Amino acid sequence: MALKCGIVGLPNVGKSTLFNALTSAKALAANYPFATKDPNVGIITVPDDRLNKLEELVTPQKVQPTTIEIVDIAGLIKGASKGEGLGNQFLANIREVNAIVHVVRCFEDTNVVHVDGSVDPVRDKEIIDAELAFKDVETVEKRLEKLKKAAKTGDKEILKQVALVERVIAHLESLSPVRSMELEEDESAFLEEFMLLTAKPVLYVCNVDEDSVESGNNHTKAFSEAVKNEGAEILLISAGIEADIAELETKEERNEFLEDMGLNEPGVNKVIRSCYKLLKLITYFTAGEKEVRAWTIEEGTKAPGAAGVIHSDFERGFIRAEVIDYAHFVEFGSEKAVKEAGKLHVEGKEYLVKDGDVMHFLHNV
């Protein structure tokens, strides 16, 4: 799918280091502002233990995980909304992503310069939020002018839109993101075409030192308090640890490293899964001797749409779907055993695919 998560933050907070660990793309990571000018784009595999279990049960010739796209966007600075520090280019890059991974620095290190001279993740977040809000105000004010002209006809729908846009501007001028507004479904749909930066869902990643990965530190506590009313997820990640893990060649070496660090899994796995959830994506599986594969769809996708992810012909000629709950597949051990137990269910065009469904589609094309 074409959905993307964009990594944003001030310069030198660890964005490119995290991106490299996520993608092993080895993007430039340097100790000076604007080491990243153009966005680096990587395709990352979504870790899923269910896929490993299906592989174990089916023993296919091939296994294909699902992926999402991640974009490393250059560091914003104060004044970016007015073009400071190549700000217009960076903000345009953010506009193109579907969700934001906002990295804040929560570690002290005199060898890594901070663009504002000191470590303060709450201040850093507020700088980014303000720049995104200022840019959104600029966007909606332009639209408001056109709407007001059109509203002179007395059209009730346009007058309603004018009132909504004025509400949005007032909300943004209080430096609150659009995603925190209470909106009706039709209002949200109308605002979607504005592609507002602060309307995008956000995941916060606190980049911490090695000793703070599990329990955090004073910086992460202050940051958590500052964002407690946003309803956003916060992850504690040490980009340095993740960079070290990414350099290791084998799974055995990575597991040994994690064990020595007292960690259950790489932090990047948590970031990837959270990005997946942030984009409102789910996974269904196909499982056969030739291939066990994970497929990405949006929440609320019906069976024909899920079939269309495999091939457009499957959607066009959809007849029905044979569905096995993942838990039943594991419980009975094979498709044959599931059928014999009467646990396979047949679904039609209105079936909403669930995360973890194991599916087989019948079509007439």
Characterization of this structure:
The chain has 365 residues and is α/β, with parallel strands linked by helices. Helices cover 42% and strands 19% of the residues. The chain is built from 14 helices and 12 strands. The strands form 3 sheets. The chain has a 6-stranded mixed β-sheet with strand order 2-4-1-5-6-7, with helices on both faces. A hairpin with a 3-residue loop joins strand 8 (281-287) and strand 9. Helix 1 runs parallel beside helix 8 and helix 4 (121-151) packs antiparallel against helix 5. It is flat, with a radius of gyration of 23 Å.
What is the element layout, followed by pairings?
Elements: E1 4-8, H1 15-23, E2 40-45, H2 49-58, E3 62-64, E4 67-72, H3 87-95, E5 99-105, H4 121-151, H5 156-173, H6 185-192, E6 202-207, H7 218-226, E7 234-237, H8 239-247, H9 251-261, H10 267-278, E8 281-287, E9 291-298, H11 303-310, H12 312-316, E10 318-324, H13 326-332, H14 335-340, E11 345-347, E12 358-363
Parallel strand pairs: 1-4, 1-5, 3-9, 5-6, 6-7
Antiparallel strand pairs: 2-4, 8-9, 10-11, 10-12
Helix pairs in contact: 1-8, 4-5
